[in-house]
Amino acid sequence: MNIKSQRVFTTLVVVCSFSFLITTVQFAHARxxxxxxxxxxxxxxxxxxxxxxxxxxxxxxxxxxxxxxDQKYIKPQQNGDGYESDGSEFSDFEASEERWExxxxxxxxxxxxxxYWTWVxxxxxxxxxxxxxxxxxxxxxxxxxxxxxxxTIAGEKKVVTAHKDRDIWRADSxxxxxxxxxxxxxxxxxxxxxxxxxxxxxxxxxxxSKEVQFTFLADTQKAPWIAEVFSNIxxxxxxxxxxxxxxHVQTGGNRGMWxxxxxxxxxxxxxxxxxxxxxxxxxxxSGKQARNYSxxxxxxxDKAFYVVEAGPVRLFVLNSNFYLKRIxxxxxxxxxxxxLAVPAQWKIVAFHHPxxxxxxxxxxxxxxxxEHLKIRTYLLPLFEQMGVDLVLNGHTHLFERARNNGIxxxxxxxxxxxxxxxxxxxxxxxxSAQKRTAFWLSADDRHLEVQVLxxxxxxxxxxxxxxxxxxxxxxxxxxxxxxx
Length: 484
Known about the structure:
Blueprint: H1 3-31, E1 62-65, E2 71-79, E3 82-89, H2 97-101, E4 111-118, E5 126-131, E6 148-153, E7 156-161, E8 163-165, E9 168-172, H3 177-182, E10 187-192, E11 199-202, E12 212-217, H4 224-235, E13 241-244, H5 255-264, H6 266-269, E14 273-276, H7 291-297, E15 306-310, E16 313-317, H8 329-340, E17 346-350, H9 365-369, H10 371-385, E18 390-393, E19 399-404, E20 407-411, E21 429-433, E22 438-443, E23 447-453, E24 459-466
Parallel strand pairs: 4-14, 12-13, 13-14, 16-17, 17-18, 18-20
Antiparallel strand pairs: 1-2, 2-3, 4-5, 5-9, 6-7, 6-10, 8-9, 10-11, 12-22, 15-16, 19-20, 19-21, 22-23, 23-24
Helix pairs in contact: 4-5, 8-10
């Protein structure tokens, strides 16, 4: 055996041994679940025909051949915390990623990317949109000589000339949240070239706002139909903006997936701004500069850390993609030290990778990249010194709660990605569940509250913190209630 063959053989042995070890850990965990971690029902699909299931995607869709040899796509139906199939076929874009990539529909009119609002490191929110490549042939679009945005604020109209950045058009709001409210308005009406009718957007808060409400979700990724469910739920809540914790799509370099993300999030992003943290999947097949993410959110990834002034809350958004040297942690720490020093009633930090988790998803990267160790080493001491109240994360595809030195850590369950597995025990984590969730947050000068919502809009957990009088947790009883 030559040297090259020996190396190949050695690599295979190592990979097989590692896979056996992980399988053993998962099996042992399944046999004896840790305290506070509820065993989940096994996935048991029902079929009208026998199908060959792709285990990697079993929770998003199942594919196989019927006895007649036809391809069928089976959409799972929710059954408790697991999913089952009733045998119904996919006939829409969910059927395959190929259809994701060619997903512009007649209902989109002039737009490849439907209009959406961002509030990413800017004082004023920004209106963004993308035209179809054939928009010029449609007289209703009329973008040959540029595009404009017309805003109506407290009865006064303002027309803004849009500017183009690659394939995305942008128009800054004429006023920020405080200026709008000084005129007695919280909503502004807008209409851009190619929109058949005007729409309205809730203006985000500003530093002098007395209270704030916003929503949080993450890991929308592979199943836009699930993201759309959460989008419809959250759009009905009183909220001034939505915070996304990263992994907006499965493959950041796939533009079709971004189109589906913006369509799925349309119930929210057409009438409130998104505050975004970048996740590891947002980089995938998109280079170190995460080209599509950078274009859609108008921020370079190495500068994707910023603070949002939201009334009594100072919200710090970070880029935690430290592996492969995608982001320089030292620069971020230096900025954060200065930003956290500014007094605030509530300090909330949001980024993709949680420092504490019971999950072992995303193998083998968590063991190679060790973001959680860098976060504990570089960021947690700052959080503790500077009085951070709450940390929001995604990534593990589990709903988890942890506590360390007076700081609450809350990780939201995947709003589209497949659920993550358990397999390791962290002493800081007091609850883990394979449950899809999103959060609704409310804050004033005395109270900070987080309500955890399930996929049917039910409240599954609540955390409340009050200052000046007491500081305590409140959890509502539900089927997978955290242990105390």
